[in-house]
Design goal:
Layout: H1 2-18, H2 32-40, E1 42-47, H3 50-54, H4 75-84, E2 89-95, H5 124-134, E3 138-143, H6 156-171, E4 176-181, H7 208-218, E5 223-226, E6 232-234, E7 249-250, H8 262-265, E8 275-276, E9 279-284, H9 302-312, E10 317-324, H10 333-349, E11 359-362, E12 384-385, E13 393-411, E14 420-429, E15 432-439, E16 446-465, E17 470-471, E18 473-477, E19 487-490, E20 495-499, E21 506-510, E22 521-522, E23 527-528, E24 533-540, E25 551-555, E26 563-564, E27 583-584, E28 589-606, E29 617-625, E30 632-638, E31 649-668, E32 675-676, E33 678-682
Parallel strand pairs: 1-2, 1-10, 2-3, 3-4, 4-5, 5-6, 6-9, 9-10
Antiparallel strand pairs: 7-8, 11-13, 12-17, 13-16, 13-18, 14-15, 14-16, 19-20, 20-23, 21-22, 21-24, 24-25, 26-28, 27-32, 28-31, 28-33, 29-30, 29-31
Helix pairs in contact: 4-5, 6-7
The structure holds beta-L-fucopyranose (FUL).
Protein name: alpha-L-fucosidase
Domain F5/8 type C: 539-684
Family: Belongs to the glycosyl hydrolase 29 family.
Length: 685
């Protein structure tokens, strides 16, 4: 009898010994709905509302609903673009600071119901809901607490209005994955409250605890976003960049939406943060959040978008890319083209995981169920963990033979809290072990980008952590080179520099107008172009044979001897060969001493390129002089459509000799003094 009893007991004892328990959580940890949100990683923002029609970023609130009239609105096009781009949801500006509502709210007349769109019967939130459902996307709501239209803003009655509207939005449109509360205005913020003197105390006015409770009750699965969460926090800038050190933890109770010191002090989270409030990086694909035809030439380049991707998703943050939907009601063709380029590039970068064919070992394992092989099994529930108290751990990947790679991806099993605070990545190359990167935090996902390394072994050492670490995934990739049009930069002396984002990609160029190819001159160092020439340049990756589009830059005489005739010390910005700096001339003109008598055949003008351009010249006179006193008109006219398309303007005229030139503004688009970002001449036919 005893024998029968002892045997099962022995088995039981053996089992309890060999099956270790999961590591204890390191608080704070994500809630269930935060974990589901983490899975989304990448989703779209749509800024489309009254500002689209008033051409503003922050409307005043006195706009007429009659102005809201998209001609071809198609929420399905938005959803298709987002889905094709690999995004998992869309957050829509249901109400922005100007107070206009995209749904027929029962609590205001300032909405689509009084607009000509769909004869006042439209409901854009419903249309987006249907589109999201059709394309398998989640839907989120941006709701601006600040309201320039509402007469009661600043009084307790407005809080009731806000809650009534939130109730409509969170009851009538199905599941909402995120509620986005903007921190703008309210008296204390650095956004100031321009044109708004109804200052409120952002900390107390909105009575956030009760507003949050309402959202929670109506949409228990939704995360709420603001500077301070409560569930997801702002990354602290609008460039789409998280930080080398980015924690999911935040001292939440010290933060409120719109606090001036937030970006510097809190945005990267804190190691000892009390709550799980992970970062979300929001950025627009154009300079503005809303559509402005004058930004059609400023859609972010592929190189910029790739940087955004790696600096957000690759740094423990979600990524929210904004499409400023245009007046037709569509995502603009140029924006679609760029976002799809990003999708293709990211797919290529992560096409093949080299780690899957490597032998993997960990210096310590917690035991059965927590083996290091779990980081390669493609399952997010399984993970590697070390024994309690074992902080320092080294994971080694052995490829068996030399492999080339330039990306390393690593993920913590964040359900048990973010732990790692120091790591080193090293590779065993032909010359021995080499350090690739020394870093701090990992979190939900960390992706390291580095130049190509050829190595047969890779070592990831966790040097410091809040508790014994764990990892959900490791990946190693060889991303193809980014082969994009080179940037041509010329300085005032005539020195030309040609730049590409990747060091190992060749730049080839010609100066005689012929198409550059593999045989052309390779760019090594900056060179002087003294005479007018047509520079054509391409980027070529020798390894893959990929070639960029050709950049064509017309280079006229250098500006080495030029001087602006003015007492203003910054006047030289108009001739510094940098269109991103400008000079505002109080008397609406610029006089330039060319330093020598020159045969002219035309001139060029770049209007200011900053976000809120002012002093864009729309009508001009261009004159030449030998002595700077007696002037002769060489051209006169208008720059048509320059406000909407503020690119370089080129004007030609019959040959004329001059030592001085004068460009006078007859009219600027906003009536402000003329601004000159860059003035140049044309001396050849
Ligand atoms: C900011 C707002 O003021 C901008 O207009 C935009 O909506 C951006 C996403 O958030 O705080």
């Amino acid at each position: 009898m005893m024998r029968f009893l002892v045997f099962p007991l022995l088995i039981l004892a053996a089992c309890t010994q060999s099956v270790p328990t999961p590591p204890a959580a390191v608080e704070p940890v994500p809630s269930e709905h935060q974990l589901a949100w983490h899975e989304l990683e990448y989703y779209a923002f749509v800024h489309f509302n009254m500002n689209t029609f008033s051409d503003m970023e922050w409307g005043m609130g006195d706009e007429s609903p009659a102005a809201f009239n998209p001609t071809e609105l198609d929420a399905k096009q938005w959803a298709r673009v987002a889905r094709d781009a690999g995004m998992k949801g869309i957050i829509i500006t249901a109400k922005h600071h100007d107070g206009f509502c995209l749904w027929p709210s029962a609590y205001t007349e300032h909405s689509v119901k009084n607009s000509p769109w769909r004869d006042g019967k439209g409901d854009l939130i419903r249309e987006l809901r249907e589109a999201c459902d059709e394309y398998g996307l989640k839907m989120g709501i941006y709701y601006s607490p600040w309201d320039r239209n509402h007469p009661d803003y600043g009084k307790p009655e407005y809080i009731t209005y806000m809650r009534n509207q939130l109730t409509e939005l969170l009851t009538n449109y199905g599941d909402i994955f995120e509620v986005w509360f903007d921190g703008a205005n309210g008296g204390t913020g650095y956004y100031g409250g321009a044109n708004e003197d109804r200052k409120v105390d952002k900390f107390t006015y909105y009575d956030w605890p009760n507003t949050y409770a309402l959202v929670r009750e109506l949409q228990p699965g939704a995360v709420m976003f603001s500077d301070g969460g409560p569930d997801v926090r702002w990354v602290g800038n609008e460039e789409g960049f998280a930080y080398e050190t980015t924690w999911g933890n935040l001292m939440r109770d010290s933060v409120y939406a719109g606090m001036p010191e937030y970006p510097e002090k809190y945005a990267s989270g804190q190691e000892n943060g009390t709550h799980w409030v992970p970062a979300e990086a929001d950025v627009s694909i154009r300079p503005g959040w809303y559509y402005h035809a004058y930004e059609d030439h400023k859609v972010k380049s592929l190189a910029q978008l790739v940087d955004i991707y790696y600096n957000s998703i690759g740094r423990n943050s979600a990524l929210l890319i904004n499409f400023p939907v245009d007046r037709r009601g569509l995502i603009h063709e140029k924006d679609v083209e760029q976002i799809m380029k990003l999708k293709t590039k990211i797919d290529e970068d992560f096409a093949e995981d080299l780690a899957l064919n490597a032998q993997i070992e960990a210096s310590n394992e917690r035991g059965k169920g927590f083996e290091i092989g779990n980081v390669l099994d493609g399952k997010k529930e399984t993970y590697w963990a070390s024994a309690d108290g074992v902080i320092e751990n080294t994971i080694t990947l052995d490829f068996g033979k030399p492999k080339r790679f330039n990306r390393f991806l690593v993920q913590e099993h964040i359900a048990l809290g973010q732990r790692i605070k120091g790591f080193v990545l090293e590779a065993e190359t032909a010359e021995g072990w080499k350090e690739i990167h020394k870093g701090t935090t990992v979190g939900i996902k960390r992706i390291l980008r580095f130049d190509d390394v050829e190595a047969s072994k890779l070592k990831f050492t966790i040097s410091d952590a809040k508790a014994s670490p764990n990892l959900a995934r490791i990946g190693v990739f060889h991303a193809p080179k980014l082969v994009v049009e080179p940037d041509v930069i010329r300085d005032k002396s005539g020195q030309v520099n040609i730049q590409v984002p990747e060091k190992s990609v060749d730049v080839l160029y010609t100066l005689d107008g012929t198409e550059p190819g593999a045989e052309s001159q390779r760019f090594e160092n900056a060179f002087l172009v003294e005479k007018p020439a047509v520079l054509k340049a391409v980027a070529i990756d020798k390894e893959s044979g990929r070639k960029s589009e050709t950049v064509v830059r017309y280079l006229d005489i250098p500006k080495a001897t030029w001087m602006v005739v003015s007492n203003d010390s910054i006047a030289a910005r108009a001739i510094d060969e940098d269109k991103n700096t400008f000079w505002k001339s109080a008397n609406n003109e610029i006089v330039i001493d060319l330093g020598a008598e020159t045969a002219l055949r035309g001139f060029t003008y770049w209007p200011p390129q900053n976000r809120y351009m002012s002093g864009v010249i729309s009508a001009y006179v261009f004159e030449g002089s030998m002595d700077g006193k007696n002037w002769k008109t060489l051209a006169r006219g208008e720059f048509s459509n320059i406000q909407n398309n503020p690119i370089e303007q080129t004007v030609r005229f019959p040959e004329a000799r001059a030592k001085y030139i004068r460009l006078k503004s007859l009219k600027t688009t906003d009536g402000n003094p003329a601004s000159f970002a860059e003035v140049g001449v044309i001396t050849v036919e």
